[in-house]
Amino acid sequence: MLEVSPVRAFSDNYIWLIRTPADRGGAVVVDPGDARPVETALQQHELKLHAILVTHHHPDHVGGVAELAARHGATVFGPAREQMPCEVRILDDGDPVRLADLGLEFLVMTLPGHTLGHIAYYGHDALFCGDTLFSAGCGRLFEGSPTQMLASLDRIAALPDSTRIFCAHEYTLSNLRFAAAVEPGNADVLASLAATRALRERDAITLPATLGSERRINPFLRCRESAVRAVAEARTGRPLPDPVEVFATLRAWKDGFR
Ligand SMILES: [Zn+2]
Which of 10, 48, 108, 214 is deepest in the core (most CB within 10 A)? Predict the structure, then answer.
């Protein structure tokens, strides 16, 4: 199993630091929006940065990329269809990311919705999915359509239950509050909400999630459940036979949910 640790950045971002199975002194980071906390972590653990994986173009994901790449000579991988802050090895759907010296291999999934060119990295039973899927939630639709985002979430949902979900923000508590509003009778949501509250009270991380758990608690992965559809229909006041409409209703509801 990959050894992955969170590097906190800004108010609620996680930059994931991956230790490599083959080279104990080597590291890879995902979405370094800020170089400084990454430098601190590298120094603390005496690690050399080999590569940087980028999921999408937002500043809180790429802000530290150019500085880290220049200082460490790290190879940067990023999405083919988005503006990147420096030269990157561009990746498209199905491309492999092979870091043979480090014993790492990921498969690239293009997951439009939050942004149009958003990609995720899947491998070693882990998914680094940026701002696409969050624990108990999903990213806002800044560029893509509900149809695109639901298709992207469906692709994630097709991965094995054991997949560990390394998303880029600590949004779990507010997402679970929303999930409980959508499904007040979902015992898994209520149990997760209580457990997450306890973790957040002591400022502990709630990630990674597992896909098996997300299937039970994440309303955006549950648009085809009759209880979720019924709640969305009650909000719109009309039948919603298409899961995309259920998804769009939930997403718009969550955008204004406090
Ligand atoms: Zn973003």
Answer: 214
